[in-house]
TrEMBL record, chain A:
<dbReference type="InterPro" id="IPR003439">
    <property type="entry name" value="ABC_transporter-like_ATP-bd"/>
</dbReference>
<feature type="domain" description="ABC transporter">
    <location>
        <begin position="5"/>
        <end position="247"/>
    </location>
</feature>
<keyword id="KW-0067">ATP-binding</keyword>
<dbReference type="InterPro" id="IPR027417">
    <property type="entry name" value="P-loop_NTPase"/>
</dbReference>
<protein>
    <submittedName>
        <fullName>Phosphate ABC transporter ATP-binding protein</fullName>
    </submittedName>
</protein>
<dbReference type="InterPro" id="IPR017871">
    <property type="entry name" value="ABC_transporter-like_CS"/>
</dbReference>
<keyword id="KW-0547">Nucleotide-binding</keyword>
<dbReference type="InterPro" id="IPR005670">
    <property type="entry name" value="PstB-like"/>
</dbReference>
<keyword id="KW-0813">Transport</keyword>
UniProtKB/TrEMBL annotation, chain B:
<feature type="transmembrane region" description="Helical">
    <location>
        <begin position="23"/>
        <end position="45"/>
    </location>
</feature>
<dbReference type="InterPro" id="IPR051408">
    <property type="entry name" value="Phosphate_transprt_permease"/>
</dbReference>
<keyword id="KW-0472">Membrane</keyword>
<dbReference type="InterPro" id="IPR005672">
    <property type="entry name" value="Phosphate_PstA"/>
</dbReference>
<feature type="transmembrane region" description="Helical">
    <location>
        <begin position="51"/>
        <end position="70"/>
    </location>
</feature>
<dbReference type="Pfam" id="PF00528">
    <property type="entry name" value="BPD_transp_1"/>
</dbReference>
<keyword id="KW-1003">Cell membrane</keyword>
<feature type="transmembrane region" description="Helical">
    <location>
        <begin position="146"/>
        <end position="166"/>
    </location>
</feature>
<feature type="transmembrane region" description="Helical">
    <location>
        <begin position="86"/>
        <end position="107"/>
    </location>
</feature>
């Protein structure tokens, strides 16, 4: 059950530093949206503010409205853990829990949220590992440590862990930047597969990747260091990469800038 | 000519030959033999010292000789490398020597009374002329006092460290950290005096018809005071080593912070925390002054940590070492050996226990 995300005039601050300025965009359910832009332009900050992960840093706050199916996730009576269960996240570097086995990693979200029944956990582990295209590689060694897998496998394990709690939205923060091309391809294939069930937003530095996987693309940029990042253009991927309406976007994707 | 060539003599940036001569092993051994022979002749011949001084002088001569021998054959850079390497190895040997010496002394002197009688009897009714007598009561006391102290200090210390790392912000956390640092430097006798004046003289009379009373539990309190800062600091360091992305990974699954700490952060840091706790336990087990002040020591077996005087191994060592009986020193050595063995066994057991929970690599 994928959900629609709407951001209107979202500005994000770290203390007194304004990281992004007045971003508005609508992400339709069951689509893949790519966020591109130079380093430090605020795309990761925007992504992290969608599931309130930026709040992990002290002093981080946000202005504007961010709604998921018309519920504002920044309303005072909203439970942060519920938001994060609904909006999962995959990080740049694979971060499987080192003390847990592959099986325990896959169902960590369920277990830590109180699911105890072994049969349910077994079912969820197999289902999520299959969804993450990892089952065939690990089914004979589920009790081995998750940190012993290769980088690409670890990242797919983290994706399995994320989708095991059945979120409605999956955020990916440069999920392939630490991986080799073959593992990257495996994860891109996986994203197409997951698109049927989830809304996916991905931050990437790889423009070919954005062009390959996404339906829509948002281009973020900053004028100079210290300025807040802005959303310059947000449109169909097709259009952004063939005929962008902003000069800056064209400069960036053709490699003249950034 | 490159800058390197101009500045450093003997360096050729584009050498035709990348090989260099190596100091033969035979030469190395010859230098060592010569160095120690010269040292022995000089030191022992003139009678200014014994074999220890000869070895030290020999080692220094060897280092110098090696530097010049290697310098002639291999050049200055390689000679420095060789000398420094030899220096590091000697420093390592020098650091291990006292430790080996301590263990050897303990074992060789402690073995005399290492018998069943020592571990099954107390010093009750043992006079100056009795060769028997044991440390059973002291072992009981040490185990009870350190055990209770650990039960008090570990939860407090670990929770305090969790507060400092995961929740503490601003002035209050800074103050807590500062006072923990100050506590680290408290001499054990001061902790003992504090418990004496607070627990033994003020609190214990409430439970003993108005009479102050020594107890093993009072010793536990003093030991807990000593253990607490060590546990807080080491646990804090270990928790800080847990990578942030692990916490974020857990938060991103919708896991609340307390559960993230309990199920992800603490298990990851567990082996390090156990090491810190065992250091604190080892320190507490070796403390003599607080036990002397607030538990008083005893000759008889007392299982009750809340009632009356209790003995501990370190206090037993202290008392036996100062005793006039000619059988006492042997008892002191064996008790010291027992104390070291006890701490060693506890440490190994704790490490194994902490590792069993982790996955095999």
């Amino acid at each position: 059950m994928a959900k629609r995300i709407e951001a209107s005039n979202v500005s994000s601050y770290y203390g007194s530093f304004k990281a992004i300025d007045s971003v508005s965009m609508t992400v339709e359910p069951k689509t893949i949206t790519a966020l591109i832009g130079p380093s430090g332009c605020g795309k990761s900050t925007f992504l992290r503010s969608i599931n309130r992960m930026h709040e992990v840093l002290p002093g981080a706050r946000i202005e504007g409205r961010l709604t998921i199916d018309d519920q504002n996730i920044y309303d005072p009576d909203v439970d942060v853990t519920a938001v994060r269960r609904m909006i999962g996240m995959v990080f740049q570097r694979p971060n499987p829990f080192p003390t847990m086995s592959i099986y325990e990693n896959a169902v960590a979200g369920l277990k830590l949220n109180g699911v105890k029944k072994k049969s349910l956990l077994d079912e969820a582990a197999e289902k999520s590992l299959r969804s993450a295209n990892l089952w065939d590689e690990v089914k004979d060694r589920l009790d081995r440590p998750g940190a012993g897998l290769s980088g690409g496998q670890q990242q797919r394990l983290c994706i399995a862990r994320t989708i095991a709690v059945e979120p409605q939205v999956v955020l990916m923060d440069e999920p392939c930047s630490a991986l080799d091309p073959i593992s990257t391809l495996a994860i891109e294939d996986l994203m197409f597969k997951l698109k049927d069930r989830f809304t996916i937003i991905i931050v990437t530095h790889n423009m070919q990747q954005a062009a390959r996987v996404s339906d829509k693309t948002g281009f973020f940029s900053i004028d100079k260091t210290g300025d807040p990042g802005r959303l310059i253009e947000y449109d169909d991927t097709q259009k952004i990469f063939s005929n962008p309406s902003q000069r800056k976007t064209e400069d960036y994707i053709t490699g003249r800038f950034g | 000519m490159s800058i390197l060539e101009r500045q450093v003599p003997g360096v050729v940036m584009t050498p035709d030959n990348i090989r260099s001569r190596k100091l033969p092993v035979v030469t190395n051994v010859l230098v060592a033999v010569a160095a120690f022979a010269v040292a022995a002749v000089v030191v022992l011949g003139t009678g200014i010292g014994n074999w220890v001084l000869a070895v030290v002088v020999g080692a220094v001569l060897y280092l110098v000789g090696l530097y010049f021998a290697a310098g002639r054959v291999e050049g200055r850079r390689a000679a420095k490398n060789r000398t420094m390497q030899a220096l590091i190895y000697s420093a390592c040997v020098l650091a291990i020597l006292p430790l080996a010496s301590v263990v050897w002394t303990l074992v060789s002197k402690g073995i005399e009374r290492l018998d069943a009688n020592f571990f099954s009897t107390s010093m009750n009714n043992i006079g100056a002329r009795d060769p028997l007598g044991g440390a059973y009561h002291a072992i009981i006391g040490t185990l009870e006092q350190v055990g209770i102290a650990t039960l008090m200090a570990v939860p407090l210390g670990v929770l305090g460290a969790i507060y400092l790392v995961e929740y503490g912000r601003g002035k209050f956390a800074g103050t807590v950290r500062f006072f923990v640092d100050v506590m680290t430097g408290i001499p054990s006798i001061v902790a003992g005096l504090f418990i004496l004046s607070f627990w033994v003289l003020i609190v214990s009379p409430w439970f003993n018809d108005g009479q102050p009373r020594f107890s093993g539990f009072a010793a536990s309190l003093a030991l807990a005071v000593l253990m607490l800062p060590t546990i807080v600091r080491s646990t804090e360091e270990m928790l800080r080593l847990v990578p942030g992305p692990l916490r974020e990974g857990s938060y991103a699954l919708g896991v609340p912070q307390w559960k993230t700490i309990l199920k992800v952060v603490l298990p990851t840091a567990l082996p390090g925390i156990v090491t810190g706790v065992m250091l604190a336990v080892a320190r507490a087990a070796g403390e003599t002054a607080p036990v002397l002040l607030v538990a008083g020591g005893a000759a008889a077996i007392n299982f009750d940590p809340f009632g009356g005087n209790q003995q501990s191994l370190s206090l037993f060592v202290y008392q036996q070492a100062g005793d006039a009986s000619r059988y006492a020193p042997a008892r002191a050595w064996t008790a010291a050996l027992t104390l070291v063995a006890l701490v060693l066994i506890l440490t190994i057991a704790a490490k194994l226990l902490a590792r069993r929970n982790k996955l095999s690599r």
